Amino acid sequence: MRMYPVSSINKKRMVLAFTILSILLVVLTFRVGWVQIVKGGKYADMAKQEQKKDMPIEAKRGSIYDCHGQVLALSAVTNTIWARPTAINSGRSDKKAKYNYDNAKKALTEVLGLTEDKAKEILESDKNIVKVAKYVDKDKADKIRKMGLNGIEIEQEVKRYYPMGAFASNVLGSVTDDNAGQSGLEAKYNEYLAGVPGRWIKDTDRDGESIVYGKEEYYEAKNGYDMIVTIDKVVQHFAERAIKNVRATTGADRVMAIVMNPKNGDILAMAVTPDFDPNNPRVPTEPAQQEALKNLSVEEGYKYLMKMWRNPLINDVYEPGSTFKLLTTAAALEEGVTSLNDGFYCNGVYNVSGTVLKCWSWQKPHGRENLSQALGNSCNPVFIQLAQRIGYNKYFEYMDRFGMTSRTGIDFPGEGKAILQSKKTAGPVGLATMSYGQGIAVTPIQMVTAVSAIANGGELVEPHLVKKLIDKKTGKIIKQFDKKVIRQVISAQTSQDMRSAMEYVVSDGGGKIIQIPGYRIGGKTGTAQKAHQGTYSNETNSSVIAVAPIEDPKVTVLVIVDNPKGVKFGSSTAGPGVKQILSDCFTYMNIKPNQRAGQSKATYSPAQISKMTVPNLTGMNFMSAAQVAVNMGL
């Protein structure tokens, strides 16, 4: 075989190729060393992370029960469907991949009800995993399980459920999509109710399936504590039914009610209408409100929802009107500047530092009256005189003692605070108007708490909505909320005198409408014009507050009617609601009639009605005439 000499050009080419190859080999060697040795630990960890699946295990949110153990809120197990597009679109062959895709699409459209376009968007997503649907019921989840779909995963989780819908919604509140407290007691006690989530960490293959010899770590979730509230399901039902009836008859914008045990501060019922369903908290319960919400911007809609979720009985203030006269009377009796039989004279007006203030019945003055009669007549000039006798500084001191200058401390988020006239600037006229409940605004819970102190022997008791928190697993009481006395406001004797005066209001004064035969009831009515842009409007907050039975108070009831249409007096608007709640409570609580409780002088039999003398209302305006008629039981 003949050999041919290699040309110098070819030699150079070979040397150059060998040199380049050697350099590349050295670079590759260094690169491999860099990856395997220097960065080996990092890439090994990354590989492990790709093979690990870290699944959160949601803790079961604690249930909420009423004071007798009736379920108000619970956590139900539900299912979430996930899809892994890569696993769905893969297979040993194109035919197998298409089979997986078609079956997955069928499950999404036929079982879960997704549209063709939505299913396609999910199955062809470039994401590693996509959430398909939340809160899928057991039947649908089981159907998907039986289909044995590759790349479709079903994860169990917990959903909050309120079995009674809108019942006590402004108290209980609601949760977010992530099961965190959003409003009400759900938000206030979220730390206790939520629990601590667990984790399930396991080694998986590309499709998310467990590896036979892989490792698993399971950290069990710690469920939230159960909560027992002071709300009595039956009493709450009474209150909600009553305020719905009141709203239907008065055409009011809103009606609210509180029922409280005056002796220990337990809130037995707290109702607001219109309300919302916490199972679907972003949709109002009334069709008209649903339409109104649709037409709002995102920002306006958010504000609307925030207002809907509020509990105005705790978060907001209102002008109490004449119901505030109870506090003025109690302070005057405690200071010894008056007595129940003290004589007064009403000529319809009263001059305070050059400002003439009128009695509501100024066209037909009350004339001579004692203190009990003045409270029954709701006579403004008498309460002006009482505040003057108490004295400027001392009157403000009693506002502090009755809790009007601070929050009650009720266990609920966002408690409002009273708006009182400033001690520095109120002056004689400010003191005078405050004495009969105008020019001030308090929260309904403050008013109920103060009047309860007047009726229970003089103790200002902190109101509360929660009785105890319990670990369901062990049965151990984690936290208990007992009666908490803030201070002694008035003496037991003053409390007794006040109960007598409040009973007179119902038996012979402006509160006759809440009389119930055989029961001794004390109370006070109130009608206050609502302030708007620095002046008073024609809209009113009309209310009645009552304590019963007056000889041994078991309940304090406040009903507030926001902007009733037509007749606006608290006695006529809120009175029927208070009477209905009291009547239902007497039966439910097994409170027996008192043999000493006689019929009011203004309660007439059918035979007597035809012989009554109708009062002379000539020259009086409509509102004054209506109040006189109501006071006479007509």
Work out the strand percent.
15-25%
Unreliable segments of 5+ consecutive residues: 599-610
Helix percent reads: 25-40%
Q: Structural class, from secondary structure content?
A: alpha+beta
Description:
- The structure is a single chain.
- It is built from 24 helices and 21 strands.
- A hairpin with a 2-residue loop joins strand 12 and strand 13.
- The longest helix has 31 residues.
- The radius of gyration is 36 Å and the shape is elongated.
- About 2% of the residues have low confidence.
Layout of helices and strands, plus pairs?
Layout: H1 8-38, H2 40-51, E1 52-57, E2 64-65, E3 71-83, H3 85-88, H4 94-111, H5 116-123, E4 130-136, H6 138-147, E5 152-161, H7 169-172, H8 184-188, H9 190-193, E6 198-203, E7 216-219, E8 226-229, H10 233-250, E9 254-260, E10 267-273, H11 287-294, H12 298-309, H13 312-315, H14 325-335, E11 343-346, E12 349-352, E13 355-358, E14 367-370, H15 371-377, H16 380-390, H17 392-401, H18 427-435, H19 444-455, E15 459-461, E16 466-471, E17 476-480, E18 485-488, H20 492-508, E19 522-532, E20 535-548, E21 555-562, H21 570-573, H22 575-588, H23 606-609, H24 622-631
Helix pairs in contact: 4-5, 10-22, 14-16, 14-20, 15-20, 16-18
Task: Write out key terms for the chains shown.
5-stranded antiparallel sheet, 634 residues, 21 strands, single chain, alpha+beta, 7-stranded mixed sheet
Describe what is shown at a glance.
This protein is 39% helix and 21% strand.
